[in-house]
């Protein structure tokens, strides 16, 4: 039951058992006492161009849809007993269990956005790796230069003694 309620559209009602004479304006008139109606649809049979004995009514407010369902389920319209329930989302062939709630192209814009974001992330990661590599190379170069400088600073003890001896002789 919980799984069925997940896809339920709380402000759209399914109305089944419609007589042939009922059209969208009659359906609208029958349900308007319960609240403002956003849309009324009666899907047509492609072969006969007549409605298929059911329709959908979308109310602006969920509470209005609930009141209409409570009052009109089991009611009679043009000699036929109506079945009124919350509508399930339209199913299109191709998703889980062979059906999907949306056509495959419905997320094309978001797919392109995700692709651009992923490409931007890859570019930024590559820049970051290059910057880190350059920083590591610079650190290694400085460390090598410091080691080289330490070697230059180290004076041979014999040379140091000779330099001190020469300096003493020059000052005398």
TrEMBL record:
Key words of the record: RNA-binding
Sequence segments annotated as region (Disordered): 121-172
Gene3D superfamilies: 3.30.70.330
InterPro entries cross-referenced by the UniProt entry: Nucleotide-bd_a/b_plait_sf, PPIE_RRM, RBD_domain_sf, RRM_dom
SMART domains registered for this protein in UniProt: RRM
Ranges annotated as biased composition (Basic and acidic residues): 136-150
Residue ranges of domain RRM in the record: 11-89
Name recorded for this polypeptide: RRM domain-containing protein
Organism encoding this protein: Stylosanthes scabra
